[in-house]
Amino acid sequence: MSETQTSNHYDHEIDQFDGQAAFWWDLKGPFKTLHQINPTRLKYITDQVQLAGLKVLDVGCGGGIFSEALAATGADVTGLDLSKSSLQTAKLHLHESGHKVDYQLRSIEDFAAANPGSQDVVCCLEMLEHVPDPESVIDACLEALKPGGWLFLSTLNRTPKAMMLGIFAAEHVLRIVPKGTHHFDQFIKPSELVKAIQDKTLDILDLSGMRYNPITETSSIDSHDLDINYFVTAKKHAKKQDVT
User: Fold this and answer.
1) CA atoms of 229 and 192, how far apart (whole Å)
2) Angle, vertex CA 94, rays to CA 112 and CA 22, nearest 5
3) Residue 210 per-residue DSSP state
């Protein structure tokens, strides 16, 4: 496991996840909402690309909830995170699940520099709002992708609705998300994310929201409601064939 890191992180974010690392696989614990939305996140991706046999990178994998779901499809999965304690939990859980994931204590910037053009699919879900420079993460995800590879992003919209439901209600009233998980000023508007992508060697294929019902503990994709959580699907340009 490599421990090389870049500076594109907040120490308090790493501390937050380190302190809760033991609870990643507690279905009633602080990460229960991630477990509940996991099938929706996976279906959003597998509805667009069949993952079996592909090299898939999970950026900001935490305790491995989504990485293991990806591995269950038959994908060759690598998970990256900067929380050492979270990765220890993720690696331990592989002994219970039997899945295979290559977990690395490494930033996406460092991974991409060492492994350019190596991945068929890169997923960066609920991570961009936790770093100082989201565009640096996007650039590194693009660098890690093979030509024609798929990029899946998800994050939180910077709207009053997201502040009320994603922070106040979720963290302080319903307590379905640990306090201090989200910071409103770090949320990203869809227009900002699209602007960060559109001038790169990527084609944006889809922009959809995800609705979560805390009463039924279920989630669904909604292409019209981007007010809180939303996904972006993009595809890296294929290499131009040489003309002789």
Assistant:
1) 14
2) 90
3) E
Per-residue pLDDT tens digits for 110-125: 999 999 999 999 999 9
DSSP 8-state code for residue 166: I
DSSP bridge partners of 211: 220
Q: How far apart are CA 155 and CA 128, in angstroms?
A: 6
Its sign, for the CA torsion 126, 71, 36, 203, is: positive
Q: Is 19 helix (H, G, I), strand (E, B) or coil?
A: helix
DSSP character at residue 200: S
d(CA 34, CA 13): 17
As a whole number of Å, the CA-based R_g of the chain is 17
Q: Which two tokens stand for residue 241?
A: 């064939």
124 bridge partner residues: 153
DSSP-derived 3-state class of residue 138: helix
**What is the enclosing helix (H) or strand (E) of 85?**
helix 84-97
Q: Is 172 helix (H, G, I), strand (E, B) or coil?
A: helix
Contact 128, 134 (CB under 8 A): yes
- The pTM score is 0.89
Query: What's the residue count for the chain?
Result: 244
